[in-house]
Amino acid sequence: MVQQVNFNDPHFNTVDNVQTQAQLQIMQQQASRAAEAVQPFDALLQSTVERGGALKFSAHAKERLSMRNINLSAEDISRMTDAVNKAAGKGARQSLLVMDNQAFIVSVTNRTVITALDGGSMKENVFTNIDSAVIV
User: Fold this and answer.
1) 8 Å CB contact between 122 and 130
2) Strand order in the sheet with 102-107
3) Which of 5, 34, 69, 132 is most buried (CB neighbours < 10 A)?
4) DSSP H or E stretch at residue 113
5) Predicted confidence (pLDDT) per residue in 106-124, tens digit
């Protein structure tokens, strides 16, 4: 006995429909697992900032500090670190940090002071390749 199949019957599933439904189900499960594994952006940013640690000074910055007779205390470096943390919190990558008549170009991403200027060196200077400024 041969039974006729009505392909227009909504209960009838073709092999393609079954495969598509199975793929869709797998994709939904993968997306659900991925969503559970992703931490919220705020938590990720905070952990990145907390891991940051102390500021580093490039060889060029150390040379400029010495040449321009800029002496930084532990408190000054702490204030600079706080400023870099704030810049990082706003998504900055390269910042001009102005503090006590001194200016510093800082790679926020690498937490490295790139160069240092005193009040005299800052006059009529154009700062390029920065995306933010922090006034301390």
Assistant:
1) no
2) 56-57, 112-118, 102-107, 94-99, 132-135
3) 132
4) strand 112-118
5) 999 999 999 999 888 778 7
In a domain, 76, yes or no: yes
Distance CA 82, CA 44 (A): 18
User: What pTM did the predictor assign?
Assistant: 0.61
Residue 69 lies in domain: 53-135
pLDDT digits (tens, 9 = 90+) for 10-44: 555 544 555 566 666 777 777 776 666 655 655 55
| Residue 119 included in any domain | yes
Distance CA 106, CA 133 (A): 10
Angle among Cα 108, 94, 53 to the nearest 5 degrees reads: 10
Q: How far is CA 102 from CA 9, 24, 37, 127, in A?
A: 79, 59, 44, 14
Tell me how many domains the chain contains.
Answer: 1
* pLDDT for residue 57: 92
